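Format notes (please read before filing issues)

Several people have asked whether sequences and structure tokens are stored in separate files. They are not. Every record keeps both together, in the order shown below: the sequence lines, then the token lines. Line labels are part of the format and must not be stripped during preprocessing.
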Amino acid sequence: MDGTAPPGEEFASVVSLQVNGTTHTLTVDHRTTLLDALREHLGLTGAKKGCDHGQCGACTVLVGGRRANSCLLLAVACEGESVTTVEGLADGDRLHPLQEAFVARDALQCGYCTPGQICSAVGLLDEAAHGHPSHVTPPPRAEDDEAHGGTGTGGGPVPLTPPEIRERMSGNICRCGAYPNIVDAIAEVAP
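Then the structure lines:
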């Protein structure tokens, strides 16, 4: 034995991913993106390959609870991470509230971008609930800052106004132009 790997396996790694609550062990080429691992190795085709440059958001999934462009992440860099795709948002036969709102508000047309839009919206709700500001979030008022120990963050959830939702969803493109209904669907679910 000369220690060389069989042809095609010299640049492969074994990676363990927890996807939608199930642990999967995959052997992937080092260059395999998380998007390709999800679609080609696990058959989860909700996340879409749109631009393959992280500019359209069609591939958005949640990694460790945070939104991420899966076309830019290497699968090997996600070792041990919890990944949630649009397929993992429903609770059995019951759709996630955002999925229900997208249907009720007709927040889709062709549907290509919808899985990424919904995963991004799930992340947006969590970020706002934890007080993470966006570019359009007003600075905290002095009295709010004093009430929360002088941290400078204001301390509370960020209200999700239409401008706030639009800013936070700006990384997700809808070529059909369903933006008004997408904003309405997210606002319907926002606390």
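For reference, the curators noted about this record: The mean pLDDT is 91. The CA atoms of residues 84 and 90 lie 11 Å apart.
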